[in-house]
Queue: 2 jobs
Job 1
Amino acid sequence: DVKVTQSSRYLVKRTGEKVFLECVQDMDHENMFWYRQDPGLGLRLIYFSYDVKMKEKGDIPEGYSVSREKKERFSLILESASTNQTSMYLCASSFGRRVNYGYTFGSGTRLTVV
Amino acid sequence: GQQLNQSPQSMFIQEGEDVSMNCTSSSIFNTWLWYKQDPGEGPVLLIALYKAGELTSNGRLTAQFGITRKDSFLNISASIPSDVGIYFCAGSARQLTFGSGTQLTVLP
């Protein structure tokens, strides 16, 4: 089975800090995604990547950046954390360009910015 | 981005009852997916639908891909306590677009 591992389950950071959220998948998937989940809003796509060193903006990229230096690792960066970035962050991966098989998600990182 | 309307937002049901939830979109999708999220975990894929009109079952779960390709529903029969969680629909175009989720509570 594909495993998507997010480095932290819970994080507490101060306003203005630079925050790194790490995600690693172990099944050689080409595609990786970062979502944030907020009550009543579902899952909203922040950034995604179809290949190493490639990235594309999702629906809500403002305040975030990403890095994909290796195929298995996709990092989400909050350059200067703000309280409105307090949320659950979910990483996902998938095989190929077809989304028919769905995405495999990590367990999530709950980030609190104080 | 594209919008999916998922309803209901929450449901409280007695153990043993059947459950129905649905999603509608203003856009056509090629694939509909249903996910379940247990508390403190990421969403897990339950059912994938690939063709308009398709009806697919997975144990007590049944889902259908609407004929217009703009809607889908999920039914759960004879609910049990472990059915508790958030259920998300997702439609596939370029990337997956997710509904806002249905929070299901099963009362003993």
Job 2
Amino acid sequence: EAEVAQSPRYKITEKSQAVAFWCDPISGHATLYWYRQILGQGPELLVQFQDESVVDDSQLPKDRFSAERLKGVDSTLKIQPAELGDSAMYLCASFQTSGTNTGELFFGEGSRLTVL
Amino acid sequence: DAKTTQPNSMESNEEEPVHLPCNHSTISGTDYIHWYRQLPSQGPEYVIHGLTSNVNNRMASLAIAEDRKSSTLILHRATLRDAAVYYCILRDVAQGAQKLVFGQGTRLTINP
């Protein structure tokens, strides 16, 4: 069964360092999402892509966070510099925009970030 | 985005049915009702969704009130593997972007 791949699974870094997360969505899924989930809370949408274009990045802290999906396939989320409050699970999800779909978003297992 | 209200936590026993409620009094005519669940240390996974009629699949059933202001996710025979956080989410298909806005969800505990 096709899956959304994310790496790294775990990342520990010191504050002020740069961090990057990678996501490879299910093949053919044009819509890709990055969510952040702080422990004990529900996921919060950071950015949404349609192919290579950003559709919604209203909740992305743009002074330190950036996201790209250059060829409309895989995507990278970067944090520079990392702060203590960035410790969270970063989740990637993809959605099949066209054709028959159940309205189902497919999530990866996430990348857990700890900032010391 | 229309908002949903769920209990913070619920508890049930193994092999018994579980009814997880969700209130969405401000739902619009084009909002689909989605349910996702999140097992410990995993990403959310899709459970079921519906618009007006009750829906069944291999995982669960979704009962939607006639006025659509509430819905109930039904797990017919809970197992220990069903222990998770369950999220009830509204998705507006009238909007071009398919965006899911998660709330706090209901933490379901299953007792052996």
